[in-house]
Design brief:
CATH superfamily of the largest domain in chain A: P-loop containing nucleotide triphosphate hydrolases
Number of helices of chain B: 3
Largest sheet of chain B: none
Helix content of chain A: 55-70%
Strand content of chain A: 5-15%
Strand order of the largest sheet of chain A: 1-3-4-5-2-6
Shape of chain B: rod-shaped
CATH topology of the largest domain in chain A: Rossmann fold
Distance between the termini of chain B: 38 Å
Shape of chain A: globular
Number of domains of chain B: 1
Radius of gyration of chain B: 27 Å
Number of strands of chain B: 0
Structural class of chain B: mainly alpha
Number of strands of chain A: 18
Oligomer: heterodimer
Largest sheet of chain A: 6 strands, mixed
Distance between the termini of chain A: 94 Å
Helix content of chain B: over 70%
CATH architecture of the largest domain in chain A: 3-Layer(aba) Sandwich
Order of helices and strands of chain B: HHH
């Protein structure tokens, strides 16, 4: 229920103007008391009569203090009336007056809207009227929401003011807005319904806001996300302002906590003090990984040996987790054994650069570890732990396993080591006794929601540093493109890096000081060499015209091309829910009918170049022992995984898939289903940005036979699949994983004539450089087709025939200097002799 | 509730309550800032863990020398901690005295300034 007039906050809103006057009086009287004080001092120094000035100082200053006191009364008490029930309870009970949860501004705006609607003869203010009164162009909350979304607040306000909207809405519709606003507030952990919550609720129903959403890249949820961000900022400001709170006082540090701890002079020379870094960074909020922070605290607080091994790819926020532990330890909010410890990272690189021999380095390391153990308040951090276990033979790298081993058992020696999955599998797992001393903490990649919050926290620092305004749309775009195009680095680091690079990049754009999604797209295009923005906007056009585009290169195969195009359209428009690659197809058909050519054409269409094709001959993987060659092992990189890691935006062509070992095909079940595969080092290789095409000529005889019998394509496909299943070439679950099983027919003579024309045109293009033109006659084409036609080998023979008969003849003539420049040549179709016309 | 009563409730109950809560924070913070729990627990502990080992065998001279050194390091630790405790006590007393003063002032200052206005008008 909404009944504003019955609420305390409504009464307070009526009083606001009086208290606003107090604020004004306060300022005036403070100025006057200052002036009177100066005159009073002047008169006293000059021994003049100062009684009047003395009285004036006292009166004006007292008025200032009293009005200040009344303003505090208004701000601290009246503006926050006590409620008998919580917002959650009020939302559950439909009879409760929800307007009691409004903050002062919301109450004021709604009051204005109600008055406005009464003037227009409406029972309840309609959506437009509510929005109009809430669009206060001086309200910082409203400005924040609309400016971050790059919506013209003034323009929208003017538009609403210029129209007279007399749409009637029902009481239920009116109240539903505020119920929704209440739910939004509750979702973000609020206890009041603020103007941002009401605007967010209005987005779902108000026509102007809905129109903005339709016309731009903004989603309804964006309003909610910005509102959430905004309220987090206000909460932080409010918390920081209360310098007297116990939490803030603890940040001032302490004296004497390390007096019972030993000195660590050697360690101090070869280390980085993370505790100092966290203090200097000013106790930033740690987002995500809260459970991992608790896990480390539990490990470190163990009475016996407490060693944590953080496993995760660089960039997933491993160091941030340690920052979280340090932050809690500094303010004494961690577990007793973790509180007030020093977190020191061993800087082995600086140690190796200052020592001259391995013996000396080992001695120094031993001394460092002894100091850690003796100090009693040091938690040692070793980054890239795997690099120091003798696995990598490079100058200056020492194997610490022998030295650190005995200390890891000690209850006085606490350490946090960081490593990646590859480091763990390659080096640490080789030393099982060492690994047994650690408790593992596996850090997964952060989700997009948490990454967005991290970016939001970084925005103000970036804006101050680069003097740019970062729109919310660009934050959203950063996450979208990172998720789609950067797969070799995890969230949140890839998004943080990209945003900063894009802000710097936007400096080139002298026309605007705003970081826009286009800047993010351009930046990612430079990084990945893929025209991101274009691809995304052009993808629709490509998908719509795919048949035509593919037919420019592929002759015939209408049914196959149509089926590929339809399957890709289904896959790319989100009609199908999917996690796997962009698209996956199994091309079946005899050799030389255009399967590979279609794959090449798709690579060129989708990835802008034929080079973006990872071609793997599956006949090389006939044994199960070949899996390491495909996925990689400790000794060698995987043919498939390394190529896809290096080219995440590519077309993967698996040639002659029927020849591969069935167990190898099982690997592809996961790739096709989930869109990733783990290589032998445990690294996740994503196929989300690839199109996978497997080709096979299994059952081609069935196709040839079916064509001879003039069967239609659906029937041919049915026969072919039946033959394949019968022979056990592929299992049904394998075939079903593909977005489409495409059957390529044998080429007809007409198709081959067209191919001959294309091939001869290519030759002509080459000759054009020598200013020679080949006249392509029908007879020549017919002869070439006649010589090369073979339903089993398709067009494959044609290339050889053209090489043998045409190209060789032309080459010989060129060497004999019998063709003068600028001449037209013709080839006799009977004996392939050249005549100059 | 009448606004005047609300004002009195805020001025005479809520504001002093807030002052008391802030005072409590500062007093508790003193315990943490001067590490009182740790200091009392380790009052006679050696300074910065400096301890000499008595070694193997028994040599009265060496034993006494080590004993004296260990006593000295404990005495240094004790003196330093005593200083810290003294500063803590001074801090707590100052905070308490100032806190109590602010507590009373926070209750009565608006009424004092009303009196001051009346007093000031006498000079006008």
């Amino acid at each position: 229920m909404i009944n504003l007039e019955k609420t305390e906050i409504y009464k307070v809103a009526q009083l606001e103007s009086i208290f606003w006057c107090f604020k004004l009086i306060q300022k005036i009287f403070l100025i006057f008391s200052g002036i009177f004080l100066l005159f009073y001092i002047y008169n006293v120094i000059n021994a003049k009569d100062a009684d009047l000035l003395f009285g004036s100082v006292i009166v004006t200053f007292s008025v200032f203090v009293l009005t200040k006191n009344l303003s505090s009364f208004f701000n601290e008490y009246l503006k926050n009336p006590r409620k008998k029930i919580s917002l959650e309870q009020a939302l559950a009970d439909k009879k409760e007056n929800l307007s009691q949860f409004f903050n002062l501004k919301s109450a004021k705006y709604l009051d204005e809207a109600i008055k406005d609607s009464k003037r227009n003869g409406l029972h309840y203010p309609n959506y437009e009227t509510i929005l109009k009164s809430f669009l206060d162009v001086k309200n910082q909350r409203i400005i924040f929401i609309f400016s971050r979304l790059l919506i013209d607040l003034n323009g929208l306000k003017k538009e609403l003011e210029s129209k007279e909207c007399l749409t009637q809405i029902t009481r239920e519709e009116f109240e539903a807005i505020f119920e929704e606003a209440g739910r939004i507030s509750l979702k973000r952990g609020g206890e009041e319904i603020k103007e941002g919550d009401i605007i967010t609720a209005l987005v779902k129903v108000e026509p102007h806001l809905k129109q903005i959403i339709i016309e731009s890249d903004i989603d309804e949820e964006d309003f909610e996300k910005i509102n959430d961000w905004l309220e987090r900022i206000y909460l932080k400001i409010q918390k920081d302002k209360q310098f007297w709170s116990y939490e803030n006082l603890l940040k001032l540090g302490s004296l004497g906590k390390d007096w019972t701890a030993g000195y660590t002079p050697t360690l101090d020379s070869y280390s980085i003090d993370w505790t100092d870094i966290v203090k200097r960074r000013g106790f930033e909020d740690i987002i995500g990984h809260k459970e991992k922070v608790s896990q480390i605290e539990r490990i470190l607080s163990k009475k016996d040996a407490g060693n944590a091994l953080i496993i995760g790819e660089p960039g997933v926020g491993r160091k941030n987790i340690i920052h979280g532990v340090i932050k809690k330890s500094l303010v004494g909010q961690s577990l007793p054994n973790v509180n007030n410890n020093r977190f020191i990272e061993l800087d082995i690189v600086s140690l190796s650069s200052t020592t001259t021999s391995f013996e000396q380095m080992e001695k120094t390391l031993e001394q460092c570890f002894r100091e850690v153990s003796n100090a009693g308040n040091v938690i040692l951090i070793i980054n890239d732990f795997h690099d120091f276990l003798g696995g990598k033979e490079k100058a200056g790298v020492v194997d610490v396993s022998g030295i650190i081993g005995p200390y890891l058992n000690s209850p006085t020696f606490k350490t946090i080591c960081l490593t990646s999955y590859a480091g763990l599998h390659q080096y640490i797992e080789n030393k099982p006794s060492l690994l047994a001393q650690f408790q593992r903490i596996e850090v997964e990649e952060m989700g997009t929601e948490e990454t967005l919050k991290i970016l939001e926290n970084d925005v103000f620092k970036l804006e101050a540093k680069h003097q740019k305004f970062i729109s919310f749309n660009s934050l959203k775009e950063t996450i979208i493109v990172c998720e789609k195009y950067i797969s070799n680095y995890p969230f949140p680091q890839k998004a943080i890096n990209l945003l900063e690079e894009a802000v710097i990049y936007s400096g080139r754009d002298t026309e605007t000081n705003i970081v826009l999604p286009e800047h993010i797209d351009n930046m990612i295009s430079e990084k990945t060499k893929i025209p991101v923005g274009k691809i995304r906007s052009k993808e629709k056009e490509i998908l719509l015209d795919l048949e035509e585009i593919l037919h420019k290169r592929v002759v015939g195969q209408e049914e196959a091309i149509n089926e590929i195009s339809s399957a890709l359209r289904r896959a790319r428009t989100g009609v199908q829910t999917r996690k796997g690659p962009m698209g996956s197809f199994l091309f079946l058909g005899p050799t030389g009918v255009g399967k590979t050519e279609t794959a090449k054409a798709l690579a060129e269409t989708y990835f802008n170049s034929e080079e973006k094709m990872v071609r793997i001959d599956m006949s090389e993987f006939q044994r199960i022992d070949d899996i390491p060659r495909l996925l990689g092992s400790e000794k060698q990189p995987g043919i498939l995984t390394s190529q896809v890691s290096e080219n995440p935006f590519s077309l993967v062509l698996l040639d002659e898939i029927e020849k591969a070992n069935p167990d190898i095909l099982n690997v592809f079940l996961q790739v096709l289903d989930e869109g990733y595969v783990n290589d032998n080092l445990g690294r996740k290789v994503s196929f989300n940005n690839t199109i996978i095409i497997a080709t096979s000529n299994a059952g081609y005889k069935t196709i040839l036979k079916a064509i001879e019998e003039n069967k239609e394509m659906p029937e041919i496909k049915k026969d072919l699949l039946a033959a394949i299943f019968e022979k056990g070439t592929f299992r049904p679950e394998f075939i079903n994983r593909f977005d489409g099983t495409i059957v390529f027919k044998s080429l007809t003579k007409e198709d081959l004539l067209t191919i001959a024309q294309i091939q001869l045109n290519k030759l002509n293009n080459n000759l054009r450089a020598k200013k020679i033109e080949l006249v392509i006659t029908e007879e020549l084409k017919n002869k070439i087709v006649e010589l090369s036609y073979d339903p089993v080998f398709g067009a494959r023979e044609m290339k050889r025939v053209i090489q043998d008969k045409v190209e060789n003849a032309v080459a010989r003539a060129l060497l004999n200097d019998t063709i003068p420049q600028g001449s037209k040549i013709q080839i006799d179709s009977d004996n392939f002799t050249i005549s100059i016309s | 509730m009448n606004i005047f009563i609300k004002y009195l409730y805020w001025q005479l109950i809520l504001t002093p309550k807030k002052v008391l809560s802030i005072l409590k924070n500062y007093l508790l913070f003193g315990f943490d800032f001067f590490s009182i729990k740790e200091t009392l627990r380790s009052l006679f502990s050696p300074w910065r863990r400096y301890l000499w080992d008595y070694g193997r065998g028994f040599d009265i001279g060496k034993y006494l020398e080590t004993f004296a050194s260990n006593i000295i390091t404990r005495v240094i630790g004790f003196i330093m901690r005593l200083f810290l405790i003294t500063f803590f006590l001074i801090y707590e007393i100052v905070v308490l005295v100032l806190g109590i003063m602010i507590f009373f002032i926070s209750i009565v200052y608006p009424f004092l300034f009303i009196v001051a206005i009346i007093y000031g008008f006498k000079y006008l």
